[in-house]
From TrEMBL:
Record-annotated membrane-spanning stretches: 248-272, 279-298, 328-347, 359-380
Coiled-coil positions: none
Domain NfeD integral membrane: 258-376
Organism: Ktedonobacter racemifer DSM 44963
Name listed for the protein in its UniProt record: Uncharacterized protein
Superkingdom per UniProt: Bacteria
Length: 465
């Protein structure tokens, strides 16, 4: 009766929860439609802020902003830029998104003291309108490694020539200064807002967003499809396209340091589950971390040969617990983890992208090695320790005769009364004699005297006739 009532109780709450979820989904969908309809009816521009590294996360945010501006009837999309740059792949994808946008895009370097450096300079200049606020700067777009070092000469020449061609086509498309913009790539030149405006590297300057929207009102811009659009940006409502919790979490997962630690948690979690079966929590934690690691690693364009070495490190750790190698495989696992991680993340070789500090890898290798050796040492002690349970634990244990054994009788073992049989049939012992268990035969113990015959004659009876 109780089980049926409990199931009915949970069924009630489950049903109520499903109804509530459906109601929320319906309300959200209806509310979204109403908001979208109201937004379309209001003259507005959408605004998105790029104030972090140019990465897959910022590409995701920009793509969503362009899609929303295209669907909600925005007169333009304003991108506020304050970024030190980022990786080339994300930058190229972002410039392509902006150039192909069906909504006019206005890039605005702000606030005061902000910058559009490196990859962010390309993102800014790819917009139909590029503007800067006072005391901002743009440029320094020469390709370097993620650590700021130089690239090998031949490869650097290829990347530089490609970036020069891209910058030239962008500036020619909008009738801006090509030569000075190209020097951002070839000479790492950087320009303050006054120089950039005066030299027509960007279109104009404005002290704030409202002033910018007023200044560009009525300007004509040409979209990618060749359509000429007259901007209507005066006295419009500004609507933010902000990062969602999913965007924040996605950005968090793209950090190479986070990805590396997710792999460590996955490896150690599964390793602890294998070495201590039934623990459950380490295994579940490791599985979740592994899935998050694979999700984040896919955005890095990593060297998968390095991942093979990292997985080999895990295999070696597990084998060292199972085999009598006494820590040799753990040392190999540490080497494999360090080398594999350096190759997988290619630290220092991903141009302008976030990178993983090699010292973090070295430190993690040391920690994993110490943990592995500790677990191996514990496993060796357990294997060498005498068995403390079951029949095997009774072998060699002490028992005391409760009755004379001639050669059968009763003995006491750990407070229990057992039938016993002397291992030497032609001997007999008195009650109270200390005996050693030599075998367990069902419910009968085979025993022998602890005292050598003839030493303590009071306890050893003469041979039976």
């Amino acid at each position: 009766m109780y089980s049926r009532q409990k199931r009915a109780h949970w069924s009630y709450w489950l049903g109520a929860g499903l109804l509530l979820a459906c109601a929320l989904v319906f309300q959200f969908g209806t509310g979204s439609s109403v908001v979208l309809a109201e937004t379309r009816a209001t003259a507005h521009v959408d605004q998105v802020i790029l104030n972090s590294n140019i990465s897959a996360s910022s590409l995701r945010l920009l793509s969503r902003a362009i899609e929303r501006a295209s669907s909600d009837g925005a007169h333009a999309l304003v991108i506020e830029v304050d970024s030190p740059g980022g990786d080339l792949d994300s930058m190229k994808a972002m410039t392509q998104k902006i150039l192909a946008s069906t909504v006019p895009v206005v890039a605005y370097v702000t606030p005061a003291g902000g910058r559009a450096a490196s990859a962010a300079a390309f993102v800014t200049l790819s917009a139909q309108i590029a503007a800067m606020s006072p005391t901002t700067r743009i440029g320094a777009a020469s390709p370097v490694t993620s650590t700021g070092g130089d690239i090998e000469s031949t490869l650097k020449a290829k990347i530089t020539n490609d970036l020069v061609a891209s910058m030239t086509s962008i500036q020619q498309r909008y009738g801006r200064n090509v030569s000075l913009a190209v020097r951002m790539v070839t000479n790492a030149s950087s320009y303050d807002d006054a120089t950039a405006i005066r030299s027509h590297i960007v279109d104009l300057g404005a002290p704030n967003l409202s002033s910018l929207l007023t200044s560009i009102d009525g300007r004509q811009v040409r979209l990618n499809n060749g359509q000429q659009v007259r901007l209507q940006t005066a006295d419009v409502v500004i609507q933010d396209v902000s990062a969602t919790p999913a965007d924040v979490f996605y950005n968090f997962l793209l950090d190479p340091t986070v990805i590396f630690f997710l792999f460590l948690v996955a490896m150690l979690g599964v390793y602890l589950e294998v070495s201590h079966p039934g623990a459950i929590v380490p295994g579940v934690t490791g599985a979740i971390a592994l899935l998050l690691f694979l999700f984040g690693a896919g955005s890095l364009a990593p060297n998968w040969a390095g991942l093979a070495l990292m997985l080999l490190a895990f295999v070696l750790l597990v084998l060292d617990v199972r085999l009598p190698t006494h820590g040799a495989l753990t040392i190999g696992a540490v080497v494999s983890l360090i080398v594999g991680s350096l190759i997988f993340f290619d630290s220092g070789g991903s141009y302008n992208a976030a990178y993983l500090n090699p010292w973090i890898i070295y430190g993690a290798g040391v920690v994993v090695g110490l943990m592995g050796l500790g677990i191996v040492a514990y496993a060796v002690r357990v294997r060498r320790a005498p068995v403390r349970s079951g029949q095997e634990a009774m072998y060699g244990a002490k028992a005391v005769a409760l009755t004379p054994l001639q050669p059968e009788g009763r003995v006491s073992y750990q407070g229990e009364n057992w039938a016993a049989l002397l291992d030497v049939p032609d001997l007999a012992v008195d009650s109270g004699t200390e005996l050693e268990i030599v075998a367990v035969e069902g419910l009968c113990l085979r025993v022998r005297p602890l005292v050598t015959p003839g030493v303590d004659t009071g306890k050893i009876a003469p041979p039976l006739e």
